[in-house]
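> call design_seq(struct)
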């Protein structure tokens, strides 16, 4: 049965928000409608909806969350992950008023994994592989991917490669890192696949291609390879928070926009 964007958004809200987003956290708890977590990279705030909180009640919820991360944890920052369809409409203004800073807005894309599992021709000399396959050194693979992504994004997409390596070793049924290398073995593209436990979803994260290699099918091939693996691991749908640069490629691959997401960040003074 063909599912509409509204159907996919409903599945996203039901399956991918709250606990599903903090499955790798060191610890988390509920505070009203919020799930507040401490992760390897800092604090994180998510929710399925704000249960009608608005005005002064919402301001108090934001202030309490800032105070909790500041006084009860040692994180240097936390992210409040908002979505474009969240209510109330003035949530962004209220977060900004209390000192949080917005990152660029990204588009949430979702599609059937089987639609992305298509053959894609790679440029001559380019090899696509899963990190660690055939005896490759996982840490070397993750470090090379991180450096390549930093060149593309201006920052490391893998904050600590050893953390990812531990996940790849401990739960290969949930986490994969894929690389595309040129004929000299240099990484020209990389991206992760994260299977979300207890859901029908896998996530596509960190996808990047060096500027000189774009427009040659590598990104689409990376998506297709991860889709094929996601199906093998039991996923029905794939989702991605994507930039304006990758959105057209994902749309051509069969993903559709269901909403937007904007992280709002607090940093310890």
């Amino acid at each position: 049965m063909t599912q509409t964007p509204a159907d996919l958004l409903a599945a996203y809200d039901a399956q991918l928000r709250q606990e599903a987003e903090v499955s790798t956290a060191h610890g988390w708890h509920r505070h009203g409608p919020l799930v507040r977590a401490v992760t390897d990279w800092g604090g994180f705030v998510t929710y399925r909806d704000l249960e009608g909180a608005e005005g002064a009640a919402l301001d108090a919820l934001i202030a309490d969350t800032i105070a909790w991360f500041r006084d009860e944890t040692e994180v240097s920052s936390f992210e409040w992950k908002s979505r474009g369809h969240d209510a109330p409409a003035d949530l962004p203004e209220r977060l900004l008023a209390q000192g949080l800073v917005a990152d660029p807005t990204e588009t949430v894309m979702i599609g059937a994994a089987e639609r992305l599992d298509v053959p894609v021709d790679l440029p001559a000399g380019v090899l696509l592989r899963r990190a660690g396959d055939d005896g490759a050194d996982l840490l070397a693979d993750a470090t090379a991917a991180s450096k390549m992504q930093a060149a593309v994004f201006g920052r490391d997409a893998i904050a600590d490669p050893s953390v990812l390596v531990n996940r790849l070793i401990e739960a290969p049924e949930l986490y994969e890192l894929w690389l595309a290398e040129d004929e000299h073995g240099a990484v020209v593209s990389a991206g992760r696949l994260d299977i979300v436990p207890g859901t029908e979803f896998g996530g596509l994260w960190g996808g990047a291609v060096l500027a000189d290699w774009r427009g040659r099918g590598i990104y689409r091939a990376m998506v297709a390879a991860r889709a094929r693996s996601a199906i093998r691991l039991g996923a029905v749908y794939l989702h991605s928070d994507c930039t304006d640069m990758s959105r057209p490629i994902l749309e051509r691959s069969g993903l559709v926009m269901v909403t937007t997401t904007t992280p709002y960040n607090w940093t310890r003074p």
